[in-house]
TrEMBL record, chain A:
Pfam families: BPD_transp_2 (PF02653). It comes from Pararhodobacter oceanensis. This is Sugar ABC transporter permease. GO terms for cellular component: plasma membrane. It is a multi-pass membrane protein. The chain crosses the membrane at residues 12-37, 66-88, 95-112, 118-141, 150-172, 203-221, 242-268, 274-296, 303-323, 329-348. The keyword Cell inner membrane does not apply.
Automatic annotation (TrEMBL), chain B:
GO terms for cellular component: plasma membrane. Gene3D superfamilies: 3.40.50.2300. This is BMP family ABC transporter substrate-binding protein. The keyword Nucleotidyltransferase does not apply.
Length: 373, 362
């Protein structure tokens, strides 16, 4: 019989090595999966991990795409990680992302078609405010009425989706779109457009914001008293209380920061890669960012690497799909394996497997004993 | 928006008719055609129908055609990336089968002027190599509206609508007009699901409609869930986009099937011959693009006959589902006696016809 036993001192080395080993194991297991599906496993793995970065045919295009895809993931995940470290679970970043994008788009549409430099900065403020506001709902409900922020933030995603649909088909609909849903093309409105800062680099303001957020989170978590409080509240809530950490303040702060960052991500996306508000504007960044946050060990630098890695599996996965005729489900399984192996290895690096002797009950014939049972 | 069914507006069409720069391709290399799907190929509805069209083309052309596809591609930036990667991999032609791909198609098409782009149910043509195609699903809706009106006992038809957009409103009106013509007491109850594909929500909508007295369910959403619910409650229902009879064999009366194969084969042939031109087409029952699935035996013979007569009349052009006199819900005149609806009116339809109850949400 197997039993898990907590390791008194989990190895520091394995803490950093597990993600790498998880990626390698995913390649092996994924390769077997692709082989079973009748595809050349080496070619599939090469298409997913190598070609988007180095192939002559695709790399010039897909390398910048990596930043475009990873940017919002990193920005959202960094915000989430701060809360997760404190044990505050914002599962609704997707909703905050939507509301941030809607507020920013509305700001742009109010000014349309005025070419004023102030439009873009105001959209950033509006996006941040929208995301923050949407995250304040679960925060206030938790601090005032002790509701569960996991449920409230998650359910608010669905509310945000309905507002998005109403916006795209109703109040934000393009008056020149002959009745079709979808807002004006914000990307084509130059005062509001989130253009690439260097042509064909993939670097837009959202990516810049993501890196600023990473630095901000690093300083906050590792160099600031508040960061210490965050960690303390997550690891030892009682001790945190004695240290004078006000739980309510922490909840408001952590949900506020993560909502704000998700809102910003939505803003940069709607003004940039997504171009406009549509009924299905959100494409799961808010949920995927949760995986990125954990894959990155809730550490800002780790999140950057995790975001880039996940973006790579998306881009390479699309490539593998149409180059090898792989079903999209195979790619999703592949991405799922990555998380599975990471979590499994995590367990092994924090716990030791102990083989237990069979319990005495199952022994064939109990020996007569003088001692009482 | 989750896919498609938004219609091409002739007013929006730029009347572009640029022949592709490259002439007929060398015979020895197969033409490479890419497909972008919004759902999984196994959704038994919208995307399945497109993939059936792709497979028909593969069978038709054999070795001279190579197709690739990516399924479940979200609309927005992701779709642009997939299309660009397909283009870089050497595709000669790309079919993008959902409405929301529009802005991306036009952006990618400008980068790759030698590739032919075909956009289902879109309306934007900002590059000379973007073509639009769509189907007159409302013709099928009229036929099922008639069948529903002749088979209901409660005189209440439940309608699961997706989004309040012209395509969906047009479908409700077409079904209602045909139903009312066959049964003046008919009443439509509409639930707006605000989704194209969400089995749980669609099932809940079907339950609610049945509780409100509907004994026939129509859907403008893509999952098979409403049919399953109808089967459980003994209500009747119609399939959407593909023949869904295997999910509810007893109550599935027929389905409005999308048959893209003829269009795909024709356009691929034109691309091979070097005669492909950007176009903007809206085909229907007469062209074989909208097809009614085989009728369930539960439909009485006389009703089947009437439905077949209706299909025949639509096919030969003697019947248009929107033929006046038709008033708007508020009583104002829309079409005078004998007048048929101009396509532009249908593509921008934002009102119910007279007799419909309830309001279109805004």
């Amino acid at each position: 019989m197997l039993r898990l036993e907590k390791r008194p001192n989990p190895s520091q080395f394995w803490n950093y090595a597990t993600p790498v080993v998880a990626v390698l194991l995913t390649m092996v297991a994924g390769g077997i999966l692709f082989w079973v599906l009748g595809k050349n496993p080496f070619e599939a793995i090469k298409l997913i991990f190598w070609d988007p970065l180095f192939s002559e045919q695709f790399a010039a295009y897909s390398r910048p795409q990596l930043l475009i895809k990873a940017g919002p993931l990193i920005l959202i995940a960094v915000g989430l990680a701060i809360g997760f470290r404190a044990g505050i679970w914002n599962i609704g970043a997707e909703g905050q992302y939507i509301i941030g994008a809607l507020c920013a788009a509305q700001m742009a549409l109010w000014f349309y078609p005025a070419e004023l430099w102030i439009v873009f900065p105001l959209m950033i403020l509006a996006g941040a405010f929208g995301g923050w506001l949407w995250a304040m709902i679960p925060a206030v409900l938790k601090t005032r009425f002790n509701t569960n922020e996991i449920l409230v933030s998650l359910l608010l995603v669905y509310v945000a989706e309905k507002i998005l649909a109403a916006a795209a088909t109703g109040f934000m609909r393009n008056p020149e779109g002959s009745g079709f849903p979808g807002s004006r093309n914000i990307f084509n409105y130059s005062a509001a457009s989130n253009q690439e800062l260097i042509a064909n680099s993939g670097l837009h303001w959202g990516v810049v914001a993501a890196f600023i957020a990473v630095i901000f989170a690093y300083v906050l978590l590792h160099r600031h008293l508040l960061g210490f409080h965050v960690q303390l509240a997550g690891q030892a809530p009682r001790a945190a209380k004695f240290a004078g950490v006000a739980p309510a303040r922490l909840v408001l702060l952590c949900l506020g920061i993560s909502g704000l960052m998700a809102g910003l991500a939505g803003m940069f996306e709607v003004a940039g890669p997504a171009r406009l508000i549509t009924i299905d504007f959100n494409s799961g960044y808010g949920f995927t960012a949760i995986i990125v946050a954990f894959l990155g060990r809730l550490h800002p630098i780790g999140i950057v690497l995790a975001g880039l890695l996940l973006a790579l599996t998306y881009i390479g996965g699309e490539l593998a799909q149409f180059m090898l005729n792989l079903p999209s489900a195979a790619i999703q399984v592949f991405q799922g394996m990555l998380l599975f192996f990471l979590l499994a290895l995590d367990v092994l690096s924090n716990y030791r497997l102990r083989l237990m002797r069979p319990a005495p009950v199952t022994a064939p014939a109990p020996k007569p004993s003088t001692e009482s049972v | 928006m989750k896919r498609r069914t938004l219609l091409t507006s002739s007013a929006m069409a730029l009347g572009l008719a640029a022949t592709m720069g490259t002439a007929a391709l060398a015979q020895d290399e197969p033409l490479k055609v890419g497909f972008i799907y919004v759902g999984p190929v196994g959704d038994f509805g919208w995307t399945t129908a497109h993939d059936v069209g792709r497979l028909a083309a593969v069978e038709h052309f054999g070795d001279s055609l190579e197709t690739v596809f990516v399924e479940s591609v979200p609309e927005g930036a992701d779709s642009g990336r997939v299309m660009t990667q397909m283009a870089l991999s050497g595709a000669d032609m790309i079919f993008a089968t959902s409405f929301g791909y529009g802005p991306e198609i036009n952006a990618v098409a400008q980068r790759f002027p030698d590739i032919a782009f075909e956009h289902a149910t879109g309306y934007l043509q900002e590059a000379p190599n973007v073509s639009l195609y769509n189907a007159r699903f409302y013709e099928g809706r009229a036929v099922i509206g008639h069948i529903a009106a002749r088979m209901t006992e409660s005189n209440v038809v439940g309608y699961i609508a997706s989004f309040p957009i012209p395509e969906v409103i047009m479908g409700i009106n077409a079904a209602y007009l045909a139903a009312k013509a066959a049964n003046p007491d008919i009443e439509f109850r509409v639930v707006w699901a605000y989704t194209w594909f969400d089995p749980a929500q669609e099932a809940a909508a079907a339950e609610a409609l049945i509780e409100q007295g509907a004994d026939i369910i129509m859907q403008h959403t893509d999952s098979t869930a409403p049919l399953t619910v109808a089967q459980e409650h003994g209500a009747l229902a119609f399939g959407q986009a593909s023949d869904m009879s295997s999910f509810a064999p007893d109550v599935h009366l027929t389905a409005i099937e999308d048959n893209w194969a003829p269009y795909y084969i024709r356009r691929i042939q034109e691309r091979m011959d070097g005669t492909w031109e950007a176009d903007n087409v809206w085909l229907g029952i007469p062209d074989g693009e909208v097809v009614l699935s085989p009728f369930n035996d539960r439909i009485p013979a006389d009703v089947q006959e009437e439905a077949n007569a209706m299909i025949a009349a639509i096919t030969d052009g003697s019947f248009h589902p929107f033929t006046g006199p038709i008033n708007r819900q508020d009583g104002s005149t829309w079409l005078a006696e004998g007048e048929t609806a101009p396509d532009g009116d249908l593509l921008g339809m934002d009102f119910y016809v007279e007799g419909m109850t309830g309001e279109i949400p805004n």
